[in-house]
Fold these 3 entries.
Entry 1:
Amino acid sequence: MSEFLMSAANITTDGIPAIPSDLARSAARYNTFRAAFFARWHPERLEMLILTRLADTAQVHRVRSAGGGWSPVDWSADGSQLLCMEHVSIADRRLWLVDSVSGQRERVAISSDSETGAAGAARFSKDNRGIYFTSDHSAEFKRLCFYDLGVGRCEVVYEATWDVEDFSLSEDGHYVALLVNESGASGLVVLELASGQNVPLPTIPHGVILGVTWHRDNRHLALTLSSAQIPGDVFVLDGS
């Protein structure tokens, strides 16, 4: 294949203006990528070596906690507690309550058994009495659950033969809008929490809903939807 290789010295250009050096510097940031590559596991511990690059130097980095990490999720209404998620693995994500003053943390006891599960979207209830969250603990699909902070008990609010991927609580806490993965498309379900009954909805175009958000009037629901016919657009449902 050497006959196809040419050096810059062998290339002759004619009628092409010179490229300004500042343009080359400006475009350089779009041509610079830093990727990481797995190298070796530690022989005894859950650690690894990865290969990456900083500036023009190739480096080896030691990663001591592979796959784990913590992330904040939501504040309680009075600001006294922070809801956090511990990412142990893709199949094991745990919820914790962290006291904003003392820093003490308490794990949200989803179940008394030892079975692991992956929590997903999670938010404090509007009245601060508990936590709504999605989880596939002891189930095949993610369900919407509620953890009562007063009694320390968890109950299932909604489940289907699909994953509940995300949800949004109305400002008054009376309704919850659920996004359900239905074979790759998004199904929208709105529940009245007190009765557990479905709220009738108009027909929504088939596609993927990227998020739902309630208006403060607890009646209008905004959503972003994309499909083969709709590259991305915003819709508003009127619940009156």
Entry 2:
Amino acid sequence: MSLRSHVNAVIDPLLKRATIAILGHRVRARHPTLQAHPTAIFNYGYHDLDVLEIGRDVVIGPYAVIVMFHRSPHSDIPGRLILGDRAAIAQGANIRAAGGTIRIGTGSGIGQHGVLVAANHKIVPGEPRFRVRWDEENTGIEIGNNVWVGAGCIILPGSVIGDDAVIAAGSVVRGTVPPGELWGGVPARKIRTIGLGQAEG
């Protein structure tokens, strides 16, 4: 191993850690009521801070990964992340707001290790799976108010989850979940009606 490669092996991880720290600091400085654990990772272009809209008293847990890019070489659809007042993202969740908008409503929560993806790769016969452009027909995720997305759920692009809905742990959602319903399974299906809650002031 040459001296240069040894120095690079030491410096590169330090630069990456410093970059992650700076990006996280910028988010926390702009949103003073945000309660983000120090290990939460924010990944975005330095000039893309405006693609993140955070309400009051939002909580982001340990080791959550928040990815948000206004522009991507894989899609012409801009990315955006909107978190309503008192929204909560639990430990280890992975939120990927590129190629579409992800909106999480007021008082809604994403359980541990949940995954929300705003855009997905197209499946093109004969093409490399990860070198193709993203699907631009099914993009974004809309999660209403007072929604509980259980631990380990995957919410796919194009999904809409209505107010007061609950998604059972480990479910995969694609499509529309009506307000006030409990859905679960792979793929998620209606289990029962819960009913609508009272709107908060």
Entry 3:
Amino acid sequence: MNPFDAAEPHAPFEAWFAEARSSEPDVPDAIQIATVRDGVPSIRTVLLKEWGPAGWVFYTNYGSQKARELDAHASIAGVLHWKSLARQVRVRGRARRVTDATSDAYFARRPRGSQLGAWASRQSEVLDHHSTLEARMADVEARFAGQDVPRPSFWGGFRIEVEAMEFWQGRADRLHDRIVFERAEQGWGITRLYP
């Protein structure tokens, strides 16, 4: 689906994402997100796990820097870049924690090693040596041996409530296509931009 012919951004995003899944060599769901603390931006890569009209969801440790920043200031921006397709999609919005039930359901689908790693990591805290993390992982493996791993209360998702979405398609001679969807009172406003 061509986003330049659409009335809303979700269907064209779904089409672009499906193409990226089949052509992007690594992780097509890698999204760089930017948060703010005291007016200073910070950016990192997370994995986009859900998307649609209700928003875009990623998961993290709630004690991490990104989570603390979002809890204090919900504004967020993100970009997915698919080099193989010469495409990117940028979003801007506000991020809110998802429900415990949503986080529980996703956590239950994660590989066991990732579940255990969520318990072992004190994300964004100072780590004296990698062996300390390995020891924490061994302790967690022993703690949950022979049983399902429950989701830790300090781990869960954020949903980006999308307020704006920009589709960018690379073209020859830097004559790129850009279209921006911005949430309006009724539906979406659509603007084309110079490259």
